[in-house]
């Protein structure tokens, strides 16, 4: 599988995750990104034994775009700290069905994940196990039926973007789980991890990388 490398040094590996591949092994038994990258490093650098690659954040299986992995345990620890302190800037692009009432807004919801069904729902703040989710969006462009949004995450909850936008009547194009009433089976979800920006855990340089969505419908409307 061709996995584009966006940036690599002794500490970090930033790649463009292909769509419809799990980030790590799951019950499907399908090839996963973490294992494929470890195998690639092993071959490219002719490393004997096991290869270390630290997973510090995730993307949903159907979602593509930029991800950062740690090549050392020290980098993994520092990246996890950066993530915990909300110093990892993550920007996504999404195509939603409908046109937002407000061109830009901050969305706050409380989310609950049903782990048996692997589905997240919005709940009241006093719900048991509810977690606060915050994102901000800005409308880049719209047609009569679809809109292209830029989204910045303030929290990293499971399915957060998909659930929060669906909750305000803007389900993602192609999302079968949170927009089944308007999407057809087989449509690819239009959510893309577009940009990552953070301070390098070792060199302290600013790392800012981008990944562009594929040139296909509905992305190519813009």
What features would you describe in this structure?
There is one protein chain. This protein has a single domain, classed as Pseudouridine synthase. It is built from three helices and eleven strands. The chain has helices spanning 33-44, 73-84, 160-167; strands at residues 5-8, 12-17, 54-55, 64-70, 89-97, 104-114, 119-123, 131-142, 146-153, 191-199, 206-210. Strands 1, 2, 3, 4, 5, 6, 7, 8, 9, 10 and 11 form an eleven-stranded mixed beta sheet that branches. The mean pLDDT is 94.
- Give the CATH superfamily: Pseudouridine synthase
Protein structure class: alpha+beta
Question: Share of helix among residues?
Answer: 10-25%
Q: What is the average of the pLDDT values?
A: 94
Would you tell me which CATH topology applies?
A: Pseudouridine synthase
Describe the main β-sheet briefly: 11 strands, mixed
Radius of gyration: 18 Å
Globular, elongated, flat, extended or rod-shaped: what is the shape? Answer: globular
Instruction: Quickly name the level 1 CATH class.
Output: Alpha Beta
Which stretches are low in confidence, meaning pLDDT under 50 for 5 or more residues running? none
The CATH architecture comes to: 2-Layer Sandwich
According to DSSP, the number of beta strands is 11
Number of helices: 3
Number of domains: 1
Distance N terminus to C terminus?
28 Å
Task: Provide the succession of SSEs.
Answer: EEHEEHEEEEEHEE
């Amino acid at each position: 599988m061709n996995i584009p490398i966006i940036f690599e040094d002794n500490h970090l590996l930033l790649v463009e995750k292909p769509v419809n591949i799990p980030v790590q092994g799951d019950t499907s038994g399908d090839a996963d990104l973490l294992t494929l990258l470890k195998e690639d490093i092993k071959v490219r650098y002719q490393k004997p034994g096991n290869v270390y690659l630290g997973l510090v954040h995730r993307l949903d299986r159907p979602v593509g775009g930029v991800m950062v992995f740690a090549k050392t345990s020290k980098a993994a620890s520092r990246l996890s700290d950066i993530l915990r302190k909300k110093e990892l800037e993550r920007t996504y692009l999404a195509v939603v069905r409908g046109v937002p009432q407000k061109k830009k807004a901050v969305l706050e919801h409380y989310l609950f994940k049903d782990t048996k069904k692997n589905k997240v729902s919005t709940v009241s703040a006093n719900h048991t196990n509810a977690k606060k989710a915050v994102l901000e969006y800005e409308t880049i462009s719209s047609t009569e039926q679809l809109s292209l949004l830029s989204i910045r995450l303030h929290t990293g909850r499971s399915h957060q973007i998909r659930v929060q936008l669906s909750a305000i009547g803007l389900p993602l194009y192609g999302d079968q789980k949170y927009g089944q009433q308007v999407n057809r089976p087989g449509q690819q979800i239009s959510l893309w991890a577009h940009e990552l920006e953070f301070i390098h855990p070792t060199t302290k340089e600013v790392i800012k990388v981008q990944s562009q969505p594929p040139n296909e419908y509905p992305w190519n409307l813009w």
